[in-house]
Amino acid sequence: MFFREVIGQRAQVEELRRGLRSGRLPHALLLCGKAGVGKRLVADALAAAKLCDAAGDEACGACPSCRAFQHGVHPDCEVVTREAGRRDIGIGQVRALLETLHRKAERARGRAVILDEAERLTVEAQNALLKTLEEPPPGALLVLVTAVADRLLPTVRSRCALHRFGPLADAEMEEYRTRAGDVPAGFPLALAAGSPGRLRRLADEGLLRARTRLLDFLAAPGQTSPFDLAAELIACAASGAAAQQDEDDDQRERLRDRLLLVLRLLALLLRDLSIVSLRVEGASLVNCDLSERLLEAGGRVAPDRVDASSEACEQALLDLRRNMDPALALEEAAARIGGLLAGG
Ligand SMILES: [Zn+2]
Fold it and tell me: What is the pTM of this model?
């Protein structure tokens, strides 16, 4: 909840801190960017700094306001996100929020509201927000956080100061790995495409196992039936999903998300295999920790068969997004790729 804890996003953080220092921070902000790049962390740090008794550009961490914030019980900070078991943020939640927002703040520094996953606001809920976004009560700060700004009404977007969050640089991802301490040392950071949140999700045991299993399959495609492979991958995805599961999560949706990640791992392995089979000089592998096994496997297959396998993988991604039964989508992809790579 401190700006100094945020890795990367320097320009965005500096602009917000400048706003706090000058007293010219816009009263409605929209933080957008890919999932897991630090938007919510920055929103928290901003709210904490705004409400801190020290009234500077960073929360002091010691005043009663900061202590309340740290315990998640600040009376003047509201975080709105979707309720347990719901897919969206409805008008009821927004009305309750507006009511709170128009009451006098408990402490001296006004109120802060964070609307997380703002893309989940229903159209009705967004419309209910418009007036307040345009003219919030004195001292109020509204921060909308979203990975898909396009899903917000243009009228909502235009009332907020937009802050775009890009992916983190490689060195910043390394810094994140060092600080987090729980990402396996060999795990290739490139898989996370500059998103610490994504790295966290990818680097759990279940997905690491799935990646190894996929490489086994690509290296010796004739040895596993598509049916068995699909079942094993689903088991890998489900194990991690259970460990990470929040109580309000829709389990099937979570499993589908995890299987999309498994297929992305497959797509990246095939990308590496393509580079190896084409003998591209100087190209770096995403799965650099597995380079020896990839070289071995890639030496045996024709590049066009790897490309066709990538297409089969893309098709499975599409099928899964279109709600095809996950086992079926994986089996079909495994059967096609197995046939292609085994030379059938
Ligand atoms: Zn403080």
Answer: 0.78
